[in-house]
Amino acid sequence: LGHGSGGQLMAELLGKVITPGLVAPGPAEDAAVVPFEGGGQAVLSTDGFVVTPRFFPGGDIGSLAVHGTVNDLAMRGAAPVALCLAYVLEEGLPIEELARITASVAAAAVAVGVPVVCGDTKVVGRGAADGLYVTTTGLGVLLPGATVSAARGRPGDVVLLSGPIGLHGTAILSAREDLGFEAEIASDSQPLHRLVARMIAAGGSGVHALRDPTRGGLASALNELAAASGIAIEISEPALPVPQPVAAACELLGLDPLHVANEGCLVALVAPEAADAVLAAMRAGPEGAGARQIGTVAADPAGRVTARTLVGSTRIVDMLVGEQLPRIC
Amino acid sequence: MMTSAAVRGGLRIALHGVVQGVGFRPFVYRTAVSCGLTGDVRNTSGHVEIHAFGSEPALAAFLDRLAREAPAEARIDRVETSPLDAAPPAGFGVRTSSDVDGGGRESPPDLATCDACLRELFDPLDRRYRYPFINCTDCGPRATIVADLPYDRSRTTMSGFPMCPACAAEYRDPADRRFHAEPIACPACGPRLCWRTVGGGPIAYGEDALAEAVAIVDTGGVIAVKGIGGYQIVCDAQNEAAVARVRAGKCRPRKPLAVMVPDVDDAARLGFLGATEVTLLTGTARPIVLVWRWANAPLADGVAPALPEVGVFLPYSPLHHLLLRELGRPLVVTSGNRGGEPIAIDPDTARAVLGPLTDGILDHDRPVLSRYDDSVARVVAGAPRLLRRARGYAPASLALPAPAPEPVLAVGAHLKHTAALAVGDRAVLGPHTGDLESAETFAAFEQVVTRLGRLWAVRPRIAAHDPHPGYLSTQYATARFPRGERVPVQHHHAHVVATAAEHGVREPFLGIAYDGLGYGDDGTLWGGEILLATYTGFRRVGRFGRAPLPGGAAAVRHPARMALGYLYGAEDLGGQAIPDALAAGLLGRLDAREVDVVRRMVRRGLNAPLVSSAGRLFDAVASLLGVADDAGYEGEAAILLEAAAAGHETVDALRWRLVHRDGLWVYDPAPTIVDALERAAGEPVGMVAARFHAALAEVTVAFAESVQCPTRTVCLGGGVFQNRRLAEAVLAGLRAAGFDAYLGERVPVNDGGISYGQAAVAAARLAGKG
Ligand SMILES: [Fe+3]
Ligand SMILES: [Mg+2]
Ligand SMILES: [Zn+2]
Ligand SMILES: [Zn+2]
């Protein structure tokens, strides 16, 4: 159960069970850069999508599948070129629903500007799946001048965040559990490749690391970057853009907005000399209109993420450990 | 302990225990000389070694007097003697330290200013008249200034102050009270006071600095003072505005503040002092003592709002004596930190953090090496119980029931954090460092671990830790110790073992752990647990009924949530449900949307883990009775519920019910809650609160009588037993029912005692393997 929330347990599952047998060593990245003969470099990413409910304020599983994969490519500094789509359908899924989701995939792909070039559909028996699963694979090409990697964060970097946090996770939760926040909170699901293209154009190799804080939230994304780069990240809690309805919902539900999933923002570690230009480029488009600096990078203690609180003390920001278990005695 | 030695001539005597930094060598010298012996005495690492030469009766008399006349602060655990084949020297010498072995090492705690030094402090003819750093072998800083053992001036933060000829003469004179008083100092050679304003450097020194500080406090200002174990914040405890300013600065809206008074008579004007309270207040450890306060106690309301108790203590350093003598009134003296951070010990942190909160810093140039907050104690069932073990107590070692075959680091829990080290048959419980939430506290924890290891000259290869994956202490252990070298110790097992180990209880015993939350063996959260325990393991034989914790930690911060948890999701144990109508008061006070969301969370199990907790039941009842819907600090609702019950002495208990479920005895709190709410319609809330305490005491005794158990020994642990009313009723009830019942004394029953419990369990498990 705990493995699904995208925090520490997931990291352990990947580290101990899955990656050792399959993947070349290196820092965990959202997408892989694959060199091929002739000197070209392709970027490849794949992602499975399971979400309940399949339709939620701000999107659905179809658009989410497109945005998620496009964003994973973008986090590696790539422009998307083509998408593949695979469905696993549970027998009994209404055809109209499948049509609606497929239309959403198509619309999202058009908006992104990337064709869905191939696909696959499998149907499994009742109970063998929960309605519908989507897997999207994305092919991209490295943007000129892009050298981003989770391991390239350096002491002195500034930490930039492209927009508000906590929207997607609270929207999904509210829709799934019928909590009544739907009127105020919609998912931030959106493609970020144009934002990244502007950032790379403005900052070049000064854009050191990018990550979209999806499952596990900003806290997990920052911890992953800190671990992969061997750096310390300090963010300022008052600087975090948490929309008021999200803050209210998190307070009611006992969630830390830093642990709530996002699908339409990114966090970047940027060389200080490039920071102004990159921030301006981020703000030049709608996805980055609310971009701001939220923190800084230091050398020590490596791997540690802290948040300076309103009163001036520093709180250690953990990855989510399974379900959020209270630590209070 | 004593070995009578049939020896002619020479004898080597090794004394183990607390024998360093307590004026032991001068005592040995005086005794040896008066017995007519020659030879010498020296501190080695961890023990005192004596080479004594004389007639057989003289040596025997000497050994006898060593045991009987040792200084009050000394504790001799073990005496080893062996014949010494050497030529007797002329006279009796006192040697400086030599580091000859790495055996057991005891670092002495800090000692409050002794009466002799106090007389000199206020004697205009004494050369140390009004000198804020006066001390002798019977008193003064120890643990806070020692970098390494053996305890010697060169290994303390006094090494930077070369002695003047007068001090050097006293230091070298075996007959002098200051013979080898390592922190010896005087106005000519020692540290001096200075007064710093917020932005700038020192602007006054010595008496002038003191006068500036006194004038500011006198006129309602707030100052920081460099104390023994770190900086403190000080203001007039009768000045409402000053107290409010301290609270705002520390981000501490409601948690009570400690009050220092000039002497024990002044303390008696603030609250009721029994003989045990007086002994605690005036002892060399000088903890903050929680006492029942008089209704007309001359204190600002903001000191301990809404509480029937107040924490008082007496001056323990010459500087505190000077301040209190000048001001002659109760002062708030509270740790110098911002909410959530450890107490500041270095001048830069003090200036950065405390500067903005105060009108200036009464500083000095004797560095504080180790951070020691003031200890806190309360008398429960006639015995002193530490709620916070720090200055004056730590790092004195405690016995372990089973010796550790190799050194073990016990990393503690998460809140009220301490770490402990097990070395051989002793455990050193490090000082309280605070809640392990902030990076600053985490760093303080790492410093404690390093310092304990250095003082005891060990590098533990084994770590004992809590199984809670989210505790930063657990993460510390897993990051630094490979799996095979980690010993996980269940939270409540550690709680009850801490009590058992402190009292040297024989296993097996019945452990009763009542606290807020701890990680259970089954992955759920525990907190009202009956364990049949040994030092190595336990079997759960009883528990409290479960309820959801809606919103996790949010339900702990908002006891009203917890009340809703019981209302909508209490475990069905076959008894009555709690009708909504009874909770109309609570439901009327809360936002309708919050109630609705919480009800959905409970129904759908959304971020609402199930807990079997005594502490959370206290929270829920406090909220249902309208005593507290929110907790401004850990345990506030329970503290207020206890406070509400004050004055209702003998009452009948609320209804309760114990059922047998899946092999466990389970307390069903629903009938108790229903009864509480029904009675609250017609009785004062305090009376119902008192009945609730009585019910839990009866339930506890019933647990002990119901479970299949081969022993009559019961060990109580967990933060809920900080509640004096409950603890006294449970102890009395258990004893009346024929049980031997124990509650922590030197080891806090709250999570501050967890590391000691972990150390004891790990040592016992390793010993069992070996
Ligand atoms: Fe506990
Ligand atoms: Mg992804
Ligand atoms: Zn003295
Ligand atoms: Zn001197």
TrEMBL record, chain B:
Reaction(s) catalysed (UniProt annotation): C-terminal L-cysteinyl-[HypE protein] + carbamoyl phosphate + ATP + H2O = C-terminal S-carboxamide-L-cysteinyl-[HypE protein] + AMP + phosphate + diphosphate + H(+); an acyl phosphate + H2O = a carboxylate + phosphate + H(+)
Entry EC no(s): 6.2.-.-
Catalytic center residues: 25, 43
InterPro entries, A to Z: Acylphosphatase-like_dom (IPR001792), Acylphosphatase-like_dom_sf (IPR036046), Acylphosphatase_CS (IPR017968), Carbamoyltrans_HypF-like (IPR051060), Carbamoyltransferase_HypF (IPR004421), DHBP_synth_RibB-like_a/b_dom (IPR017945), HypF_C (IPR041440), HypF_C_2 (IPR055128)
Residue ranges occupied by any YrdC-like domain in the UniProt entry: 207-392
Protein's pathway: Protein modification; [NiFe] hydrogenase maturation
Metal-binding listed as a keyword: yes
Ranges for domain Acylphosphatase-like: 10-96
Organism superkingdom: Bacteria
Annotated region described as Disordered, given as residue ranges: 87-107
Keywords, alphabetical: Hydrolase, Ligase, Metal-binding, Zinc, Zinc-finger
Family note: Belongs to the carbamoyltransferase HypF family.
PANTHER family, A to Z: CARBAMOYLTRANSFERASE, CARBAMOYLTRANSFERASE HYPF
NCBIfam families in the cross-refs: hypF
Protein name (record): Carbamoyltransferase
